[in-house]
Amino acid sequence: MTSPGEQDALDALKRVFGYDSFRPGQQEIIEHVVAGGDALVLMPTGGGKSLCYQIPALVRPGVGVVVSPLIALMQDQVDALRALGVRAAFLNSTQNLDQRREVERAFRTGELDLLYLAPERLQLDSTAQLFDQGKIALFAIDEAHCVSQWGHDFRPDYLALSMLHERWPDVPRIALTATATRATHNEITERLGLGDARHFVASFDRPNIQYRIVPKNSPQKQLLELLRSEHEGDAAIVYCLSRATVEKTADFLANNGIPALPYHAGLDSRIRERHQSRFLREDGLVMVATIAFGMGIDKPDVRLVAHLDLPKSIEGYYQETGRAGRDGLPSTAWMAYGLADVVQQRKMIDSSEGDFAFRRAATIHLDAMLALCETVSCRRAQLLAYFGEPGGAACGNCDTCLAPPESWDGTIAAQKFLSAVYRLKNERNQKFGAGQVIDVLLGKETEKVRQHRHDELTVFGIGTELREGEWRGVVRQLLAQGLLGVEGDYGTLVLTEASAEVLARRREVPMRREPERPAKIAKAARTARTAAPVDLSDEARPLFERLRAWRAATAKEQGVPAYVIFHDATLREFASSRPSSLEELSGITGVGENKLNRYGEQILEVLAEGA
Ligand code: ADP
Ligand code: ZN
Q: What keywords are annotated for this sequence in UniProt (predicted)?
């Protein structure tokens, strides 16, 4: 038996959104909020948080008020809801007085289902007065981690959210975030007064994302190769650390025929907005960006998130990679990682202005990130363990599962390398970067070697059993394991306390040997694709392209992102199952009542023409 609330929720899911079933966790949360309970929801990016407040807002009497810091995206969010036939509007500083008055009027008269609101408006007396004049179904607090002062997205305006409960104690509140760590969770609970709320912590697994971390050689070329071989015509986000790399990489891709746009905080805000808007609206664009880009970007069909530089923490990495594949279709999270990344990040922490506690926290975050890069076991299992979900079996959809790297005993290599660093320091009082130490071990008679008479050292030429690239792997892993340190502006190498244990043979050093991966992975990726819910046959592909063209034209005409019309997944299903009546169309995931009425006939025409 279903209760009336449950039935209403399921009806709304089918009728408005065109979805058949709830994703894990959604139903429980929705029922709890529909019944008037407070909730704190922790769910990964792409997990489906929006429905958790949108459906209760539709089912409960009154207007659902959504507080969100993402002002630049409110228009798109509202457009997407309107396309579903939901009566949505927003209030923020981008509107003129007349526009705001019209929205306020609609709120008072109950002509809205959902109202999006920028947090700074909560400070205004006029907002409180407005709230008193209408009926509120619920308060949703999106991106709730913005209330956490230690997090990376702190918004002072969010502190004012605690007053919602004091002034309107009978209105249920639902706070949502994709930031999962214990510390943030506790801070949200405390600051928003959600101690008595029910806490829903979903699994953070994103099974459709394939995690891959490869050794960095020439990152731009590696990226280009990946885009060409596996992600042609796909939407992608490429993250780089610096503005300069962003610009260079975007140019490089564009020069090689891949449509790419740069995005970073140094660009004029109008350019940033234009690039963001094009990325959301057009198919198959590559956004090359610093981490300034991405929060709240709910484009469902990003097929690849690439990192050309090492993220500072697993939290950041997971949030960024989570932007791939929100629609549940197979997607790739790919990162190129090398020795220079470790040196650079360690240097940045050392030279940062933060106090001891800050540097210590930054080091712990970086070490966890490095451990993920150097692991010989399943990446996903390690990621989930980090978020407190231990015991995961090997996933079969990450690079270490698909092409297992070997682990080898690197103790002797480590000793050789550390001895060379030791001798340079103690016999010559010199410090060098990795390149020179490797040249010495390989016995290379370079000018720099002769100039410093390094060929006279006892360690000269004792490391010829490994090639240069392999030595760089050794150094990277020593740095990652804390068995070697870096110092100063030039990233010179120094011994750490732990180095002494290795030199004294009290500690073994297991290392990872990179497998011959690219070929195998590419094959595995293809099989993973075939396993996708709806993969396209050769006959269906041209039909899918016709549908995409129809969608692009329709979206352009309306000035909305393409996915607001229909998701890729829905177009794929049109193309492969070829419905021939409105009745059949309505059974397809993503076709709700409103879209069926509005586009049904047009879709049938496109399908008939393409047949
Ligand atoms: P989050 O806010 O948690 O990152 P969203 O709410 O944006 O995730 O949802 C991610 C995507 O999944 C959206 O495109 C949404 O339409 C889709 N989605 C959500 N719930 C369902 C469902 N029950 N069935 C099918 N698709 C869903
Ligand atoms: Zn795995």
A: ATP-binding, DNA damage, DNA recombination, DNA repair, DNA-binding, Helicase, Hydrolase, Isomerase, Metal-binding, Nucleotide-binding, Zinc
Give the fold, CATH level 3, of 209-337+375-405: Rossmann fold (3.40.50)
| Cβ(362)–Cβ(314) below 8 Å | no
Expressed in angstroms and rounded, the spacing between residue 473 Cα and the centre of ligand 2 is 22
Q: Please state, in angstroms and rounded to a whole number, the distance separating the CA atoms of residues 494 and 433.
A: 9
- Ligand 1 site, CB within 6 A: 19, 22-23, 26, 43, 45-51, 298, 300, 326-327
| d(CA 400, ligand 2 centre) in Å | 6
pLDDT, mean of residues 130-154: 87
Looking at residue 127, its pLDDT comes to 93
- Between CA 217 and CA 563 the distance in angstroms is 36
- How would CATH label the architecture of 4-201? 3-Layer(aba) Sandwich (3.40)
Q: What's the confidence (pLDDT) of residue 479?
A: 86
CB 298 within 8 A of CB 72: no
Task: Give the chain's mean pLDDT.
Answer: 89
- Answer whether 576's CB lies under 8 Å from 508's CB: no
Q: What pLDDT is recorded for position 84?
A: 95
Sheet containing 302-307: give its strands across.
209-215, 331-337, 302-307, 235-239, 286-289, 260-263
Cα–Cα nearest to 309, from 212, 372, 239: 239
Residue 176 pLDDT grade (very low, low, confident, very high; cuts 50, 70, 90)? very high
Decide if pLDDT at 183 tops 60: yes
Nearest atom in ligand 1 to the alpha carbon of residue 22 is 23
Fold designation for 408-513:
Arc Repressor Mutant, subunit A (1.10.10)
Q: How far is the CA of 590 from the centre of ligand 2 (A)?
A: 30
Most confident of 516-520, 521-525, 607-611: 607-611
Q: Angle 540-558/568-577 helices, nearest 10 degrees?
A: 140
3-state DSSP helix/strand/coil % of the chain, to nearest 5:
50, 15, 35
Q: Does the domain spanning 533-610 belong to CATH 1.10.150.80?
A: yes
Instruction: State both tokens at 418.
Output: 């550390």
